[in-house]
C-alpha cells in the first residue's frame, strides 16, 4: 500500500457544520469549534445565484482559466491551478473582499486581515490529480511567515465529495503545530510517518461532502489532502486565504506582503458585472514559487 494513503477514518466521519440562514456571522460557538477543531463547514454560505454568477465571472472569458498550470502528483496526473495575489475588481475579487468573508476571517484570527492570495482549483473528470498531504503553513512557513495566523475559505463551485477527489481533513491537527515538509512530485508534502501518527492520534480522516455554495473555513496547520478525480463529475473550487496584518512575511516572495484590504458589502458579488478587467490581480507565475516544481512546457501559464 502507498504509505501516503491514510486509511484510519474518524468514526462519525463528519466536519462540524453550520447553516447560513441569512447574514452569516462568526459567533462564540463557531469560534470555539474553529479553535478546537481547526475546521468547520458553512452550508449555503453562497446562494445558487451567487455561485452561478461567480462561475460566469470565471468562464465568461478565458482570462482566468488560461493562466492555469499543472501541479503533478507523481502518478501521472495533475491538479490545474490558477493563483492570484490581489482580489481585483472582478466578480472573484468581490467574493474575496466581501464582508461575510473578511469579517469572519478577522473574528477567527483575532485581528485585521489582508488577502494573501486566491486560488481556483480544477480537477476535470477522469484526469484530475491528487493534492498530497500537507499543511498550508508547511508551504507558507517557507515564504517567511512567522506565525500560522492565516486561514483558508474553501468554496465549492461544484459538488465536491469522496467520489470526485474532494477534500479530506484531520480535525484538531492544527494543535500539533507545523510538521516537516519536503518537495515531492512537484508538491510540498508533509512527512507521511508523522501524518499517519497524527491521523491516529486525532481520531482519523474526515471526507468533506460539499454542495455548490458550501464552504469550509480551515486553519493553516490543519492536515489535509484530496484524491484524484476518477468520476464523471468536474470538481472546481475557489479558495481564499487571509493572513493577519501583523503576521507580515519577512521575505519578499510570490505572495503579497501586507496590503490593506478594501472590504465591500456582500451585495457587490451579484451586482458586479466586471468579467473582463483583471487588472491588479497579479496572477502568479509558478516559476517564481520555491515550494512547487512544475514543467513550464506543460503549464498553461503565460
TrEMBL record:
It comes from the Eukaryota. Its cofactor is Fe cation. Pfam families: PhyH. This is DgyrCDS10704.
Amino acid at each position: 500500500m502507498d504509505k501516503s494513503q491514510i486509511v484510519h477514518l474518524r468514526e462519525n466521519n463528519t466536519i462540524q457544520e453550520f447553516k447560513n440562514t441569512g447574514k452569516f456571522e462568526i459567533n462564540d460557538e463557531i469560534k470555539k469549534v474553529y479553535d478546537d477543531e481547526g475546521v468547520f463547514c458553512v452550508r449555503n454560505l453562497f446562494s445558487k445565484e451567487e455561485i452561478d454568477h461567480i462561475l460566469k465571472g470565471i468562464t465568461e472569458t478565458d482570462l482566468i482559466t488560461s493562466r492555469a498550470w499543472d501541479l503533478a502528483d507523481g502518478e501521472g496526473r495533475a491538479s490545474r491551478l490558477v493563483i492570484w495575489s490581489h482580489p481585483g475588481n472582478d466578480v472573484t475579487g468581490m467574493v474575496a473582499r466581501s464582508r461575510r468573508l473578511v469579517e469572519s476571517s478577522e473574528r477567527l484570527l483575532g485581528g485585521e486581515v489582508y488577502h494573501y492570495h486566491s486560488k481556483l482549483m480544477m480537477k476535470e473528470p477522469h484526469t484530475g490529480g491528487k493534492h498530497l498531504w500537507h499543511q498550508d503553513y508547511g508551504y507558507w512557513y517557507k515564504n517567511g511567515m512567522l506565525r500560522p495566523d492565516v486561514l483558508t475559505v474553501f468554496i465549492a463551485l461544484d459538488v465536491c465529495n469522496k467520489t470526485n477527489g474532494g477534500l479530506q481533513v484531520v480535525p484538531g491537527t492544527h494543535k500539533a503545530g507545523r510538521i516537516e515538509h519536503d518537495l515531492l512530485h512537484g508538491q510540498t508534502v508533509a512527512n507521511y510517518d508523522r501524518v499517519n501518527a497524527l491521523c491516529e492520534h486525532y481520531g482519523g480522516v474526515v471526507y468533506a461532502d460539499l454542495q455548490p455554495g458550501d464552504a469550509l473555513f480551515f486553519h493553516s496547520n490543519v492536515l489535509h489532502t484530496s484524491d484524484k478525480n476518477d468520476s464523471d463529475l468536474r470538481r472546481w473550487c475557489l479558495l481564499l486565504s487571509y493572513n493577519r496584518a501583523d503576521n507580515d512575511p519577512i521575505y519578499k516572495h510570490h505572495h503579497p506582503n501586507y496590503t490593506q484590504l478594501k472590504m465591500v458589502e456582500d451585495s457587490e458579488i451579484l451586482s458586479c458585472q466586471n468579467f473582463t478587467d483583471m487588472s491588479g490581480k497579479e496572477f502568479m507565475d509558478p516559476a517564481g514559487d520555491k515550494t512547487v516544481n512544475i514543467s513550464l512546457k506543460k503549464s498553461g501559464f503565460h
